[in-house]
Amino acid sequence: MASSSPHAAAPFLLLLLLQLCSWGVALPDQFVDPTCPQQRLPAALATVLPNYGGPVCKPPAPHVPVAVFPYDVDPVQFALNLEYNEAEFFLHGAYGQGLDQIAPGMAMGGPPPEFALQARSWPHQGYQAHGRRDSSAADRPQRRQLRQGVMDQAFGYRLNPPFDPYANSLNFLLACYVIPYLGINGYVGTNPMIDGYKTKELVAGLLGVEAGQDAVFRALLFERRGEAVPPYNITVAEFTDRVSALRNRLGRCGVKDEGLTVPRELGAEGAICTNVLSADRDSLSYARTPAQLLGILYLTSDERKPGGFYPEGANGKIARSFLGKPLGANESPTN
């Protein structure tokens, strides 16, 4: 007999999320990358699946044979705040349009982003937005795309002219440095909070993509670390160091963020002073809690004081609990 408790719905909703993640979202024809070859089965795959017969091996049995626990839902739902932000930012950078134009059914509610600066449409450069449709998702929160205040706050004074993330490719790479790294912190911090094997699979998959994105951004910026960013005459390395220092201050939990240059004692194994990846002395990724992430995203250093990228606060049970605000229409109370 089915339980009437709201807890019973949570595993089903998260399983639906996982199923929908496998579908992806097809871009309209006008946004298809013209450099892609015509659809065909790759030769390497054809040798493994000659008749599309499905996989020839099975994954090992999970250590904990429960796909989703009810308490898994809230941490994953919290992560959607960052995913919506990233999806809008990358889509506007690549296509000059956001979710409402390219995949209008994905957000399932919530306002479009406010832009402090007008995004310019660039040719598609392969920036991947890995948000997916999800009937258990929190409402899309009201948010602002990269604001002038982020860089001003990082440097401690107002940059002149205002920093425009869409002005050129270097500015865009520096803007990409600001948010995606927080996804890595969040997923590393989320992993110990969840137990369902399907939930862990989802978080691991998202973490892998976030880490790949951040590695590409940092590697490209590392190659230009000594280059001055016009018209400020400030090097790329100093931009990244200042942004990382700001995130550390706002996160209120010591060093969990590193720019492209660090004191030798903070470098990998205490042996180097430059680093492509941000990691601790054991070369392991840093973790941050939801409260620490919200303090950074709000630019207030306080998870109870919205602002910054989320002027009305982030959504989901975890974020709303800090604000003492009710859940949105598409937010499911779970615990």
UniProtKB/TrEMBL annotation:
Signal peptide: 1-28
InterPro entries: Pigment-catalase-like
Presence of the UniProt keyword Transmembrane helix in the record: no
Keyword Signal part of the UniProt annotation: yes
Superkingdom as given in the UniProt entry: Eukaryota
Pfam families: Ferritin_2
Keyword annotations of the record: Signal
Protein name: Desiccation-related protein PCC13-62
Species this chain originates from: Urochloa decumbens
Source organism phylogeny: Eukaryota, Viridiplantae, Streptophyta, Embryophyta, Tracheophyta
